[in-house]
Amino acid sequence: MRALRETIRALVILSVVAVVGLVGWGYIRNHPQDAPWTELDLAQAPGMFTGRKLAGLTQDFGKCRALLDQAGVRYAVMPARDGEHCGYADRVRLQPGGASAIRFRPAELRTSCPVAAALAMWDWNMLQPAAEAHFGSKVTRIIHLGSYSCRRMYGRDSGAWSEHATADAVDVAGFVLADGREVSVLRDWKGKGEKAAFLHQVRDGACELFSTVLSPDYNAAHRDHLHLDQAERGQMGGRACR
Ligand SMILES: [Zn+2]
């Protein structure tokens, strides 16, 4: 009797494991971006590990370029720049006309490849749907304050070097819509209007794609821009979203 109970118990546990396994396998098949071991595809909707995979591209410029090519993003490779604390080997200039129609103001934006890849995904998956929902319009330009800058964090004389020192960050000050309207982080972050709702929504969306996202909610130094970077903190490393 006891042996029979044990056998039934074992069978029940096995069946539960099998069902959970099958459901999990089916889920990952339909949501490959939610598994840590699947290949990144910029054209897929972001999943749980997309942000970490994007930051991981810092180690592999060739793969990052291949992913941009595969997704139809147009870009030009910029010459490398050497330095003790500053410089880059993976800087690209995003160009409109491919899969991403987004332009920039000022017109030139040169960032590390992982930042560029995340910007393309931000455009497709967050900026355009959010602009459609809040304004019934499209985002045509990202207003930015630049990427590369050889400096330490907060421009201090000592301490950690900024991700800007390797072009692995971009500061976004606002957006221009197809109907000519502008959304400004400095002017529109606060309040209950559509512009504030849009800005908070795209900030939250950026947190899925960038390792670090700092907004006016974080501190006064970020009152006029969203700081987005791809600092590498490993597969299970922490991510900052403030
Ligand atoms: Zn910044």
TrEMBL record:
Residues 63-242 form the Extensin-like C-terminal domain. The chain crosses the membrane at residues 7-28. It comes from the Bacteria. Keywords: Membrane, Transmembrane, Transmembrane helix. It holds the Pfam family Extensin-like_C. This is Extensin-like protein. It comes from Stakelama pacifica.
